[in-house]
Specification:
Layout lengths: L5 H5 L42 H11 L12 E10 L19 E9 L14 E9 L2 E8 L12 H8 L15 H9 L4 H7 L14 E2 L4 E4 L5 E10 L8 H10 L3 H11 L5 E10 L25 E10 L4 H6 L12 E2 L4 H17 L81 H8 L3 H16 L4 H14 L1 H10 L21 H8 L2
Antiparallel strand pairs: 1-2, 1-9, 2-3, 3-4, 5-7, 6-7, 6-10, 7-8, 8-9
Helix pairs in contact: 3-4, 4-12, 5-10, 11-13, 12-13
The structure holds protoporphyrin IX containing FE (HEM).
């Protein structure tokens, strides 16, 4: 409408602390403060006076400075930047941010570890969050991803369990930032769908050298929708321009002691020094007609689509070029949500994604103090401005003008009005039919083939690192039966891997190992492979 400048709004310019001419200190009520060192007392050596509103205000505010940290991904670092598409993707999506190669869409990206507390060390063995907020002309689009392409579990119903198993143990809050403990391994050796992600976690991918050396993945299969309403499946990838590099275990441990802010510092310094980290957006696009042609289920988040089968098309660039001004206001208060999508993008029925669509907004209601956290500057959409009939609630800042906050209303001509169908968000018309049922789809049954594929794709030093990681982690597990169960599970991944870890742990390969899990030959059918690689 000509009134809203997307980049300007995303710069948060209007929200920064205003400078007065002399920068004189005041209370929150604007009263000038004369002495900021001493409380007001009854006599030089007397008690502090109750009426000292200057002291009370300062102390009260300090007492309430903290908000709850995130239940997962509490430790994070973030930066501003932009995304730009190389050429129009109108043939596969109508999403506005993918149409015009001259348009720069403002972004805010937060990297994180998943397990540790807000003050834990950067260089630990963990999955890293890679959450991207795109302030598009059609609203906020979040790709809330990780630096590994698969996830531990297939159904979100298990998320509280995996997190309770992974987090420090509840009786003594040990370990602070590590998966090397009994409850984690007890869980993952029984919930065998975790084994693919677990081998990624034992690999060098869990020890990134820098955020700028990490890949990012949307993990779930999403949909792209074009202007005709035709939908295709898509996996989102972020490919670091500097390439993927990891630390080795010995470095990780020393750095965690000597410089716990290692990754955070580098991100900050690189941006301050003009060495802007960059990633290319990659897409793996699959036609709807091919949904059932894979030997795994596209709705199963413990599976990736091998790049040899469906190549990653690089379609645009993400550049991070500005550090936040306030860690709290921006990095701590930012609220990502996988349900934040824009027209041209849609969900699938992945049961892990479906649960996330509920969880993020729900947790942010308590983390960020009520239903108005979308008004916090970092979370506000840019253009168009927000407008609806929602009102009031804790911390409401918008001063809505006018008499009506309902529709249909005859007093204000029904303003605001719903958009025309082709300008707003409309879900794809997917037919959904079935009995209510609480059951895992049989198409999710193969828990090991892709773990084997991953192991076989590793070079010799990388395999050595994986063996060392399993051996170290399990050496921290007190219950020997859990160690044995892991070795049993590894027999389903690879016999040599299992033997090497068993030997390091002083265990034997067990003939009780359950090798009855369904496994598929993960080689793609030649015809399908050819169809996608030729594109
Ligand atoms: C953060 C839930 C799976 C990536 C969070 C938070 C919750 C949550 C409650 C804290 C959010 C906040 O306080 O603002 C879940 C649930 C999942 C799930 C219920 C599965 C059922 C995943 C998966 C990924 C992921 C599969 C990656 C693809 C992240 C990231 C953050 C996060 C990157 C940090 C966002 C930030 O930087 O603020 N998740 N999560 N999560 N989650 Fe998940």
């Amino acid at each position: 409408d000509g009134l809203c400048d997307n980049a300007k709004v995303a710069s948060l310019e209007g929200f920064r602390e205003r400078k007065s001419e002399q920068d004189i200190m005041t209370t929150n009520q604007g009263i000038k403060v004369v002495d900021d060192d001493n409380s007001e007392k009854a006599g030089e050596r007397g008690p502090t006076l109750m009426e000292d509103f200057i002291f009370r205000e300062k102390m009260t505010h300090f007492d309430h400075e903290r908000i709850p940290e995130r239940v997962v991904h509490a430790r994070g670092s973030a930066a501003h930047g932009y995304f730009q598409v190389y050429k129009s993707l109108a043939n596969i999506t109508k999403a506005n941010l993918f149409q015009d190669p001259t348009k720069k869409t403002p972004v805010f990206v937060r990297f994180s570890t998943a397990q540790g507390f807000r003050g834990s060390a950067d260089t630990v063995r963990d999955v890293r969050g890679f959450a991207v907020k795109l302030y598009t002309d059609e609203g906020v689009f979040d790709i809330v991803g990780n630096n590994m392409p698969v996830f531990f579990i297939q159904d979100s119903h298990k998320f509280p369990d995996i997190v309770h198993a992974l987090k420090p143990e509840p009786h003594n809050e040990i370990p602070q930032a590590s998966s090397a403990h009994d409850t984690f391994w007890d869980f993952v050796t029984q919930q065998t769908e975790t084994q693919h992600m677990v081998i990624w976690l034992m690999s060098d991918r869990a020890l990134p050298r820098a955020y700028a050396n990490m890949e990012g993945f949307g993990v779930h299969t999403f949909r792209l929708v074009d202007a005709k309403g035709i939908s295709r499946f898509v996996k989102f990838h972020w490919k670091p321009v500097l390439g993927v590099h990891s630390l080795v275990w010995d470095e990780v441990q020393k750095i965690a002691g000597k410089h716990p802010d290692f990754n955070r510092q580098q991100l900050y310094d690189d941006i301050e020094n003009g060495k802007y980290p960059e990633w290319e957006l990659g897409l793996q696009v699959v036609e709807e007609a091919d949904e059932h042609k894979f030997d795994f289920d596209l709705l199963d988040s413990t599976k990736l689509i091998p790049e040899e089968l469906v190549p990653v098309q690089r379609v645009g660039k993400l550049v991070l070029n500005r550090n936040p001004d306030s860690y709290f206001a921006e990095v701590e208060q930012v609220a990502f949500h996988s349900a934040n999508i824009v027209p041209g993008i849609d969900f699938t029925n992945d049961p892990l994604l479906q649960g996330r669509l509920f969880s993020y907004l729900d947790t942010q209601l308590s983390r960020l103090g009520g239903p108005n956290f979308h008004e916090i500057p970092i979370n506000q959409p840019t253009c168009p401005f927000r407008k609806n009939n929602q009102r009031d609630g804790f911390h409401r800042q918008t001063i809505n003008v006018g008499r009506t906050s309902y529709s249909v209303n005859g007093i204000n001509n029904n303003l605001p009005q719903p958009a025309a169908r082709n300008r707003g968000f409309v879900s794809i018309q997917e037919r959904v039919d079935g009995h209510k049922i609480r059951k895992r789809s049989p198409s999710f049954a193969d828990h090991f083939s892709q773990a084997t594929l991953f192991w076989k794709s590793m070079s010799t030093p990388e395999q050595d690192h994986i063996v060392q990681a399993y051996s170290f982690e399990l050496s921290k597990v007190g219950h020997v039966f859990i160690r044995q169960r892991l070795v049993d599970q590894l027999q389903n991944v690879d016999a040599t891997l299992a033997l090497r870890v068993a030997t390091n742990l002083g265990l034997k390969l067990s003939d009780k190992a359950d090798n009855g899990f369904p496994k598929t030959d993960v080689k793609p059918s030649p015809a399908l492979s050819q169809a996608y690689t030729a594109k």
